[in-house]
Amino acid sequence: MTKFRRSICLLLAAWIVAALALAQAAPPAVQKVRFHQTQEKVRVVFDMTAVPDFNVTLEKDPLRLLIDMPAAAAKGALLKTALNDPFVAAVEIQDIGPGQVRLAINLNMMVGYKVFKLAKPARLVVDLFKNYDQKKEEQIRPGIKYTFWQRSQPSGPIQAHILLIDPRAGLALQPVLSNGAVAGLETLASMSAGAKAIAAVNGSYFALNGEIIGLLKINGEIVSSPNIARTAVGIFPDGRIAFDQVNWQGYVEFPGGRAELNGVNRSRGDDELILYTGYFGPSTGTNAYGAEYVLNQDGVVTAIGQGNTSIEDGCTVLSAHGVAAKELAGLKVGDKVTVSQSLGREWDAAVHALGAGPMLIKDGSIYLTTKTEEFGSDVAGGRAPRTAIGLTKDGQLLLVVVDGRHAASSGLTLLELALFMQELGAVDAMNLDGGGSSQMVIYDKVVNRPSDGRERKVADGLAIVPGSLAK
């Protein structure tokens, strides 16, 4: 009997050891999924045999929270459960390979989240917060801090990309121009790379052919002229950055007369006189119904044509049509022409300037100039992706892009953008081009989510480059 009992004990011990070994060999598995929904959050609980190490990723397109478990298995049939919740669409358990399980939470709107594990019994808990305010900060290099800020608000979630730049850290703000010319467009990442920039955001409004709608001044030369006084940012020789509504005027003087300029480096209209410089492109692109005068660097007429005149190095072209052509009809080769342009006494001294608008903040107060700057609904209407630039009280520079037109970020109105810039500490700020053009690049990589679903080609941008703001 003793031998029999001993045999039973040995068999029982062997069975326990085998069972334990089998249990240890079996990968952790999801057994059940439970939900708890309130007005503030959704809690998803995964009951498991054990909770292994896991990786959490918030995927933006499609919008979902992914929890990958490299050493786990799905138990039984793959599971997909739909939730009747405005923020959370469904939960899936996916077997993505041998010994790999993915827990996918499909989202209707952006949420905050916290993922943690509990023991006895083993559970993986995911809290999805409908009201959230989360920031991730990164020091790009001394003097530049990048913040990714996502938060909920009554009008919908927003995702903002914020650069805070200290000008005293050997950094300069300068415009970058697509392909080095007005004609044509280029991606911001490509422009940034060409300028060896640390970071950049999109800049002016523009036409599909690349013509800039508004003011652009680079290294003291006017590249594009505004039709009306709109807000611009200027960088001055002492390193000062300023914002103001800037107007432009220009004229030419020649033997026996004077004529008003209508613009710089843009398409010539009826009865207009346009100045084309080397920044425009290889030729004026005009039709044959005008008169064009090639000026050398001394302002002497070297050739006269009708349309699509080549713009040689060091030369400019005056292109006249209709009434303007009659005013210049007496010009001949060898005549001296003086071209004068002005942005006003203060802004004539600016090294660089880039216009867009409207103004958002002036001297610490909300100061929207939408109507006075004659912006229509394409800029002023509704919520949209936005780009802005501002200055803080202590002289630091803010470059901000707010995503929009997708579930993770609903965008901002101009007033909401002004309030947001004020919240960031801006005492002066202006709006830049927005919509699908809103982009931020850091070390040649787009860090925001353009609403076109891809990087849009634009006309120009504002870049942060190593160097002094003073010129």
Automatic annotation (TrEMBL):
Residues 290-464 form the Phosphodiester glycosidase domain. GO terms for molecular function: hydrolase activity, acting on glycosyl bonds. Residues 1-25 form the signal peptide. It comes from the Bacteria. InterPro entries: AMIN_dom, NAGPA. Keywords: Glycosidase, Hydrolase, Signal. Residues 33-108 form the AMIN domain. This is Phosphodiester glycosidase family protein. It comes from Anaeroselena agilis.
